[in-house]
């Protein structure tokens, strides 16, 4: 194994063009960590926010973008049990995924699901950790409930639709074109709403109101989401692509017994992420192995063309996940 590796760095805050290939020393795993020789890396919205200077990595994390990857274990640090050099894994990363090697806590690694390749497995960690923790743990979605996910054709959206449907929820999704809406219904949505032509508030109210909404838009969607909720409904916020500030009458939270909550994954403790990994291993990985849910793939780019991958993601023309081929 070489002591140097290819990476893609953020040279300054800005657009996709600030992502540049470079070389760095291969990191060494610390206590409880493993070193992964990366085959594929997932591309996610937080990567673009970090690139734009809006989402700083935790102090102990790599400054390289990349929060999920697949590959094989290249080295194990002290205190690691259950993983060995050569094991195929996919993993949630604290950062550093746009590289040939990355370190991460061993507890944040999951086996590549049976029958799945490394390319598809690279799409799992960030998206499935986010959806499981926010929809099922924080949002407490139950079978029979009405669930609305915005951005239904995104990586988060396609994952949320499939998981909610397989666990028995009635799924509604928003998307920006007839083609994207068709993809949402094919994945299990009962009703896909073209937000350019239809009002999701009206449609959800006619259906009885949403028991749970997963939103990454924010802005003026926040008061509209509240209107779309059924009494005792829950709104889970995971991003604010249209901004975090809005004027709203909060009295309805009391009179209708509503809950507004949210989370971000990256700042959570290693223990919290390990617990999410344990839940996924028990509840979701068997579904992946059985083919009942699967990542939806959009496109792939070589590692050196990470800027083009970001441009593709920010064009909002994609459906599902974008990956970087590293090895």
Describe the structure.
The protein is α/β, with parallel strands linked by helices. It has 2 domains: 180 residues, Alpha-Beta Complex (Quinone Oxidoreductase, Chain A, domain 1); 135 residues, 3-Layer(aba) Sandwich (Rossmann fold). 29% of the residues lie in helices and 28% in strands. It contains 11 helices and 15 strands. Strands 3, 4, 5, 6, 7, 14 and 15 form a 7-stranded mixed sheet that branches. The protein has a 6-stranded parallel sheet with strand order 10-9-8-11-12-13, with helices on both faces. α4 links the parallel β8 and β9.
What tags apply to this protein structure?
327 residues; alpha/beta; Quinone Oxidoreductase, Chain A, domain 1; Rossmann fold; 2 domains; seven-stranded mixed beta sheet; six-stranded parallel beta sheet; globular; ADH-like_N; NADPH binding; Quinone_OxRdtase_PIG3; oxidoreductase activity, acting on NAD(P)H
């Amino acid at each position: 194994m070489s002591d140097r590796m290819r990476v893609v760095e953020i040279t300054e805050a800005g657009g996709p063009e600030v992502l540049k290939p470079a070389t760095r020393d291969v990191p060494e795993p610390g206590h409880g960590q493993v070193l992964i020789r990366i085959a594929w890396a997932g591309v996610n919205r937080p990567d673009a926010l970090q690139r734009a200077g809006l989402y700083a990595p935790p102090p102990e994390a790599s400054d390289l973008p990349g929060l999920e990857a697949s590959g094989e274990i290249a080295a194990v640090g002290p205190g690691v049990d259950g993983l060995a050099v050569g094991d195929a894994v996919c993993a949630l990363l604290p950062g550093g995924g746009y590289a040939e090697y990355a370190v991460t806590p061993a507890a944040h690694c999951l086996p590549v699901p049976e029958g799945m390749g490394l390319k598809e497995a690279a799409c799992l960690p960030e998206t499935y950790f986010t959806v499981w923790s926010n929809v099922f743990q924080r949002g407490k979605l139950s079978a029979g409930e009405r669930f609305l996910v915005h951005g239904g054709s995104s990586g988060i959206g396609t994952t949320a639709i499939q998981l909610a449907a397989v666990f028995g929820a009635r799924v509604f999704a928003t998307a920006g074109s007839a083609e994207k809406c068709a993809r949402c219904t094919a994945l299990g949505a009962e009703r896909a709403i073209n937000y350019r032509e239809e009002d999701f508030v009206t449609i959800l109210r006619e259906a009885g109101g949403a028991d749970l909404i997963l939103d990454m838009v924010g802005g003026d969607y926040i008061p509209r989401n509240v209107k779309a909720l059924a009494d005792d409904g829950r709104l889970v916020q995971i991003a604010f692509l249209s901004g975090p500030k809005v004027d709203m009458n909060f009295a309805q939270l009391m009179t209708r017994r509503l809950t507004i909550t949210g989370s971000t994954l990256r700042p959570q403790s290693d223990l919290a992420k390990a617990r999410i990994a344990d839940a996924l291993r028990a509840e979701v990985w068997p579904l992946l192995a059985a083919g009942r849910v699967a990542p939806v793939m959009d496109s792939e780019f070589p590692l050196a063309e990470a800027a083009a991958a970001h441009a593709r993601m920010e064009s909002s023309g994609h459906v599902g996940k974008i990956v970087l081929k590293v090895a």
